[in-house]
Amino acid sequence: MARVNITINGQKIAAQAGQTVLEASEEAGIDIPTLCDHPALQPIGACRMCLVEIARQRGLQPACTFKVVEGMEVRTESTAVVEARKFVLQLLFSERNHFCMYCQMSGDCELQDLAYRYRLDHWIYDRAFPKLEVDSSHQHFVMDHNRCILCRRCVRACAEAVGNHTLGVRERGANSMICADLNAPLGESSCISCGTCLQVCPTGALMDRKSAYLGLPDEVEGVKSTCTFCSVGCGVELVTCYNHLIRIEGDWDATPNGGLLCVMGRFEPLDEQRTRVLRPMVRRDGALEEVDWEEAQQFVADKIRGLQGGLTGLASPRLTNEALSLFVQLFRQGLDADAGSLIEVPKFLGQPEGDLTLLDQADLFVVVGTDLTVDHQVAGFLVKRAVTNRGARLILVDEETNGLASYASYHLKLGESARAIALCTAASAPAVIYGTGAGTDLDQLRKALAGKAHFVGLVPGANSRGALAAGLNGAARLEEVRGFYILAADDQVSEDLGERLKGVEFIAVHSSYLTPLTERADVVLPTAIWSEKAGHFTNTEGRVLELARAVDPPPGVKDDEDILKALATKLDVTL
Amino acid sequence: MAKVKVATDWLDVCSGCHMSLLDVDDRLVELLKSVEITSSPITDLKHPPEEGVDVGILSGAVGNTHQQAVAKEMRERCKILVAIGDCAVFGGICTMRNFFDTEEVLRRAYVETESTDEQGAIPRSPELGKLLDRVKAVNEVVKVDVHLPGCPPPADSIWFVLTELLAGRIPVLVGDNLTYE
């Protein structure tokens, strides 16, 4: 990048061509306050907090949008600049109704931080006290217009980062209001509950319901980890307070999601309705009775010995690589038993393929056999934002009900992907994203586009790649098995599995929750859930991502690995 | 040396700011060596003396004609006027009624409250202050010299303001002394 020499506060700085004054200052370690600016979004110069003096410019200029020019002289702390910042803050505070004493964001609010920084101790302008709405129609968050400073970060996040374009601004000037769709209540709008707007809001205007008032900034901790609700493996920051998980945020620095999350990873995990298993249980006279660990594990070991080879182990793809590896060692090598997983992955998705971070460069997407508005939603955001912001085109090959249909230039039926090939060969950077429904379409696309298109496979389940790498893919057989040992973790277990295991002599289950499977089990051993586990998951691209133990499991609840190790000892197996 | 005269009163308040003032605890005894508190809402004399005081301290917002008169009287009778607490400085919680018509507010308070029976009625005695159309911060009614926000301002911040004034300085609020909550 060409070098551009500028001076900031008398200091010579080597900036790069195309940088803004704000970017150049940040790199040089010179702080300029901002409100509407956000590293993940394009700057718009709305808030005017970043105004600086630039020699020979007629007025103060916003550093966030002003590009550097050779020989430019910038002053970021002159009297005029500091007065301007205070003026902007006084205007912001006088425009709407900003009261810190009852706001859940107090202590963690960018607007408040600036008021403290500039030592504002009273307001100098008359205040309008406009009567503004609080929109609490949305299930997961509340929009309080009284606290909004119209920075439009939410609008930009919804448009640029996610490609959903639900939020906008209606009216003008002092009557401007953030709105959803054509002024619909948020809860009835096209919002997909990704929560990105919530994460970028600098004030308490967008309020997360579950975590509001649950911890002051100095009482909460953030632990980086990985989302475990699909195989994209988004980087998350788990916000905890006194050993409770109160909020999940996207990690802006993480790959492959860059701060984005979807409803399944951000909000649904905190809406858990199932009952937690807290004590080991053994079924006696038809009912599960609580027992201690020693008794439960001994009972299981004795039963396994009694089965004399009629045992199959099954692992959920929600287990970590470490737990899966230990499971395979114990069952296949140690006990010479069959080992399988609770999910079956089609052969064409058997190997990791593709890099989600390269999708931002694609000019044509062929999405085959998957609905990215349901599964792997963050991958869907990458497609939506390319189509709506960059003019990329989408060819959808799937059922009519696919949620991406309105984004598609062409919507083909499964089996018709040959028609997409000509468009792909003409594109400069086509990408083919495929899911479990892809089948024969994928073969055709590969034949024609190998080497030309970037293929990205989206495997079902969470750590299915970890399971596949450990040699586990579905269950070899479920019939004629005398006993099952199932590591269900915190998985959603279908009624179906419980039904299919009827008539089996013995079922032992590792489970975090009471499920249709624990209803059938003879022994239930309580295990940690995803946020209580340390270990690794392998995402659909083959990236090994780290899980951190953000909260301790309830006392008495164990890790899958520890239970397996104890079982091995009881069965005289060395792992 | 003559004691510095201080008068204090409260307007539309919860009295939390005066409780916070009392939270300076035994430092108050030390303070009284150089300060004479001429009047306060919690002592016998309520009004600042006619001859005036050096420092007037007001907490609470101006919400009715009575409070407006108190604020004006305090301003006339003191050299340095200190507004303490979010209500005095910003209008605070009291401004919640600014989104409603005063009649609506009075009806809600005296007639429609869940625990009021059919006998509820809005008191209209001429002796009572009349609600202003809008609740105001003290600085919207009279000139204020020192603002100490907080809900309430911590006792240490109140102490800081008093000691700075005694030292002949207008206090500059930094760090923990400046809080909006």
Overall description:
The complex is a heterodimer of chains A (575) and B (181). With 575 residues, chain A is α/β, with parallel strands linked by helices. Chain A has 4 domains: 3-77, Ubiquitin-like (UB roll), CATH 3.10.20.740; 127-271, Alpha-Beta Plaits, CATH 3.30.70.20; 281-344 and 464-570, Rossmann fold (3-Layer(aba) Sandwich), CATH 3.40.50; 348-457, 3-Layer(aba) Sandwich (Dimethylsulfoxide Reductase, domain 2), CATH 3.40.228. Chain A contains 15 helices and 27 strands. In chain A, the strands form 7 sheets. A 7-stranded mixed β-sheet of chain A has the order 15-14-25-24-23-16-17. In chain A, helix 7 crosses helix 15 (560-570), helix 8 packs parallel to helix 15 (560-570) and helix 10 packs parallel to helix 11 (439-449). In chain A, 48% of the residues are buried. Chain B is of the alpha/beta class. Chain B has one domain: Rossmann fold (3-Layer(aba) Sandwich). Chain B contains 6 helices and 7 strands; from the N terminus they run E-H-H-E-E-E-H-E-H-H-E-E-H. In chain B, the strands form 2 sheets. Chain B has a 5-stranded parallel β-sheet with strand order 2-1-3-5-7, with helices on both faces. Chain B is globular. The mean pLDDT of chain B is 95.
How is the secondary structure organized here?
The complex is a heterodimer of chains A (575) and B (181).
Chain A: E1 3-8, E2 11-16, H1 21-27, E3 51-54, E4 61-62, E5 73-75, H2 79-95, H3 110-117, E6 134-135, E7 141-144, H4 153-161, E8 167-170, E9 177-180, H5 196-200, E10 206-208, E11 220-226, E12 235-241, E13 244-250, H6 263-266, E14 281-284, E15 287-290, H7 293-307, E16 311-315, H8 321-334, E17 338-341, E18 364-368, H9 377-389, E19 393-397, E20 410-412, H10 418-426, E21 430-434, H11 439-449, E22 454-457, H12 464-469, E23 483-489, H13 495-500, E24 506-511, H14 516-520, E25 523-526, E26 535-538, E27 544-547, H15 560-570
Parallel strand pairs in A: 1-5, 16-17, 16-23, 18-19, 18-21, 19-20, 21-22, 23-24, 24-25
Antiparallel strand pairs in A: 1-2, 3-4, 3-5, 6-7, 7-10, 8-9, 11-12, 12-13, 14-15, 14-25, 26-27
Helix pairs in contact in A: 7-15, 8-15, 10-11
Chain B: E1 4-10, H1 16-22, H2 27-31, E2 35-39, E3 53-59, E4 62-64, H3 65-76, E5 78-84, H4 86-90, H5 102-110, E6 131-136, E7 146-148, H6 155-166
Parallel strand pairs in B: 1-2, 1-3, 3-5, 5-7
Antiparallel strand pairs in B: 4-6
